[in-house]
Amino acid sequence: MEITLRVAELLQRLAHGVDQLDWDAVRPLFAERARIDYTSLDGGDPVELAREDLIGAWSAMLPGFDATEHLIAWPLVTRRGELWHVRSQVMAWHRIGGGAQPAIWEIGGRYDHLLRDRDGGLEIVAMTLEVAWQRGDDLRPRAADRAKRGEGRARR
């Protein structure tokens, strides 16, 4: 049970760090290079990214949202050789604007993470999103444009 608690904490640190734009908190959660697979959302092929490139991509877009909320829950953890495989549920809300008619993009599905032990902790070496459903328009391009203009939110 201890590993499940360690994994749950890592996933919550990831969600909180991303939503708070706290890249210093997110950075140590990833290996130097990680395989990122968002093909169920974007098509294309999985990519292997340096940790700083992944954080750079997120930090160029996510501040353009007025709010995000990522919930990663119910991790099922199994050992795969030297790695831990984690399957969890994810729900993500992304909002631009306020008032009665904000633009909202919601995603639900599953995450698969591969983690490895490192210096008494865990680090993400692979992350795959499996989108089960979406509601609303994909707001990422709009958020990226807003972030370039300094609109949206600052790190909390």
From TrEMBL:
<dbReference type="InterPro" id="IPR032710">
    <property type="entry name" value="NTF2-like_dom_sf"/>
</dbReference>
<dbReference type="InterPro" id="IPR037401">
    <property type="entry name" value="SnoaL-like"/>
</dbReference>
<dbReference type="Pfam" id="PF13577">
    <property type="entry name" value="SnoaL_4"/>
</dbReference>
<protein>
    <recommendedName>
        <fullName>SnoaL-like domain-containing protein</fullName>
    </recommendedName>
</protein>
<feature type="domain" description="SnoaL-like">
    <location>
        <begin position="6"/>
        <end position="127"/>
    </location>
</feature>
